[in-house]
Amino acid sequence: DTAVSQTPKYLVTQMGNDKSIKCEQNLGHDTMYWYKQDSKKFLKIMFSYNNKELIINETVPNRFSPKSPDKAHLNLHINSLELGDSAVYFCASSLGGAIEQFFGPGTRLTVL
Amino acid sequence: GENVEQHPSTLSVQEGDSAVIKCTYSDSASNYFPWYKQELGKRPQLIIDIRSNVGEKKDQRIAVTLNKTAKHFSLHITETQPEDSAVYFCAAKGRGGADGLTFGKGTHLIIQP
Fold first, then answer.
1. How many CB atoms lie under 10 A from the CB of residue B69?
2. What whole-number distance in Å separates Cα of residue B97 and Cα of residue B24?
3. How far apart are CA A31 and CA A38, in angstroms?
4. In chain A, how many H helices and how many E strands?
5. Chain A contacts of B31, Cβ < 8 Å?
6. pLDDT band at A16 (very low <50, low <70, confident <90, very high)
7. Which of A93, B20, B29, B63 could pair with B58 in a Cys bridge, judged by C-beta atoms 3.0 to 4.6 Å apart?
8. Interchain contact A89–B (C-beta under 8 A)
9. Residue A103: which of B44, B96, B98 has the nearest Cβ?
10. Which residues have C-beta within 8 Å of that of residue B17, sequence separation ≥ 6?
11. How far apart are CA A47 and CA A55, in angstroms?
12. What confidence score (pLDDT) does residue B41 get?
């Protein structure tokens, strides 16, 4: 039974399209995150979200938006996809702060 | 915001030797410092972490040290094995409940047989 899961694993799409990546955790965690790993393997926080606050990295374009239907899910919506959005996107979760974050398997997004 | 610097970017050691990776952070309010190992095509996996009230932590062949005054922390791997080959990331987390991790740029550790 998977702790943090993401769908799809691979996503290939055209520039200008809108797409979503889903993330689910079954750990009972209260905080979820989205990270972007680019072609140079740099891992960068995009969003952090718990039931009280959403923290947005100021470098993330507003074409990206997280949506949380419930505590176990944090989906990532991307509008008007650009070539530079191609990357691996990782979802993660934790129970509160200062504690291990469990990562999902990643979604490799390729924008053509 | 937090900035984490990590060195070296690539480290090649002979099997059985020790490897050391160093990181510095900028925000004195950061209080949690994990290390992740990422194999090719896989997710980052936590290997060890340390909190700001502790100076050193060890788990079998892996140890981490933290110097809060100098704002730097290091990963030590002893008796390296071929399966230790991977990319290692250090990270720092602020005190906010929902703060994400700020990662270093990674170290590609190569274990030479």
1. 6
2. 22
3. 23
4. 0, 11
5. 98
6. very high
7. B63
8. no
9. B44
10. B80
11. 6
12. 93
